[in-house]
């Protein structure tokens, strides 16, 4: 999957919730249930990847924010 076609976190999460609701409702054929399950797994992977990326960015920004706060305290 290329990045242009990849959904945002919010889009992937909403679609994943719809897949789960559909699976929980039952009534789908075995083939359809398997396709829904596979799509759900793919969406969960997308969400996890995006959350990991956000976590990495936050961890990278944390020292910069702490350094900026220290500089402000020192200037006071």
How does this structure look, described?
The protein is mainly α and 76 residues long. It has one domain. 83% of the residues lie in helices and 0% in strands. It contains two helices and no strands. Helix 1 packs antiparallel against helix 2. The mean pLDDT is 89.
Quickly give the structural class: mainly alpha
Reported for the largest beta sheet, the result is: none
Helical residue percent band: over 70%
- What is the succession of H and E elements? HH
Question: What gross morphology would you assign?
Answer: rod-shaped
| Number of helices in the DSSP assignment | 2
From the structure above, extract its key features.
mainly alpha; 76 residues; rod-shaped
Describe the secondary structure blueprint for this structure:
Elements: H1 9-25, H2 30-75
What's this model, at a glance?
The chain contains 2 helices and no strands.
């Amino acid at each position: 999957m290329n990045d242009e076609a990849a959904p945002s976190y919010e889009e992937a999460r909403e679609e994943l919730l719809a897949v789960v609701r559909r699976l929980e409702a039952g009534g789908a054929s075995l083939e359809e249930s398997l396709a829904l399950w596979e799509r759900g797994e793919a969406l969960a992977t997308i969400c996890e990847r995006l959350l990991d990326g956000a976590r990495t960015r936050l961890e990278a920004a944390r020292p910069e924010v702490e350094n900026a706060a220290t500089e402000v305290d020192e200037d006071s």
